[in-house]
Amino acid sequence: MAKVTQHLGFSAQDVAQAADLLRAGDCVAFPTETVYGLGADARNGLAVAAIYEAKGRPSFNPLIIHVADANSARAFGQWSDTAQSLADAFWPGPLSLVLPLVPNAGLSELVTAGLPSVAIRVPAGDLAQGLLRSFDGPVAAPSANPSGKISPTTAEHVLAGLTGKIAAVLDGGACAVGLESTIVGLTDAPTLLRAGGVPREAIEEVLGAPLHDPIAGDITAPGQLSSHYAPNAHIRLNASSWEAGEKTLGFGQMECDLNLSESGDLSQAAARLFGHLHALDAREGDRIAVAPIPEAGLGAAINDRLRRAAAPR
Ligand code: TXA
Ligand code: MG
């Protein structure tokens, strides 16, 4: 059934209205510093189910819960010294921690997909923080895009994909980081489950030790489907020159249709990545070529998203 999707602004009244919608069991999209999330009350199974329904998402995929601060996180994830040091260093910010689930914490089983662990994040940004404080509870939120499509970094992206399927979107403009959070698993030795907005190197510096990589084929990071973030166009990576008929995405000084960063700045490239993919996809033509991106720092997460966008589907 089609709903009216409200386009809310960033006033205190808009934030309070969004929190009321969450309390009523509705889905509300909101900006974080990474991407727009599609939020619902993580304790309300029907509300969480509505997220899956709006996104058309396979339901074996567990969701990240968002809380206002580390203190609130401890109610849901079993805390440790390692969790504390990472929270001190990176929260609020683009890092999610997978922790052993606190028994009877009140989360819907749909959020954890029945796993004995939970992914938790404290997002930055005035609107995200305002919404979480006003709502005063855990908000489950995957990226606010139809399943398998490019993640949204503006309210317009959200509305293009989910109008008629969600109650509202809070419009906070473009996301500053532009890539989803880095996910670190702490149910065992610290493991990098997903590259993202905090570079691996920065986390390893805080830990004073290298992160482990997930064992191939392990189900600890379900939902890492290889074809993801997919534009409609076919994507060619590491293009050292452009071919006729290609829409071109550059990096550094070069001629191209859109440039991730003329100066070769990886933070700028991350912030522009999904927006440029959305924009190129909307143009005429069915092929996109992308210049090589260095693998260091945020480049690892950018290349991860590009490989998924290019994967056969
Ligand atoms: O930046 C972000 O993280 C954004 C914003 C909205 O916060 N959210 C986001 O959520 O990217 P989503 O649902 O698109 O990605 C959640 C990821 C999935 O890869 C999922 O498998 C993993 O988190 N995940 C969630 N719970 C987990 C758990 N208990 N164990 C392992 N992985 C988990
Ligand atoms: Mg997503």
Features:
single chain; 313 residues; alpha/beta; DHBP synthase; Rossmann fold; 2 domains; ten-stranded mixed sheet; four-stranded parallel sheet; 10 helices; 14 strands; 31% helix; globular; binds threonylcarbamoyladenylate; binds magnesium ion
Count of helical segments? 10
Which whole number gives the mean pLDDT?
A: 93
* Main β-sheet, spatial strand arrangement: 1-8-2-3-7-4-6-5-9-10
Give the amount of beta strand, in percent: 15-25%
User: What is the total domain count?
Assistant: 2
Q: What is the percent of helical residues?
A: 25-40%
Characterize the biggest β-sheet: 10 strands, mixed
Q: What is the end-to-end distance?
A: 29 Å
Please name the CATH topology of the largest domain. DHBP synthase
Describe this structure in words.
This protein is an alpha/beta fold and 313 residues long. The chain folds into two domains: 202 residues, Alpha-Beta Complex (DHBP synthase), CATH 3.90.870.10; 77 residues, Threonylcarbamoyl-AMP synthase, C-terminal domain (Rossmann fold, 3-Layer(aba) Sandwich). It is built from ten helices and 14 strands. The chain has a ten-stranded mixed beta sheet, with helices on both faces. A four-stranded parallel beta sheet has the order 11-14-12-13, with helices on one face. The mean pLDDT is 93. The structure holds threonylcarbamoyladenylate and magnesium ion (MG).
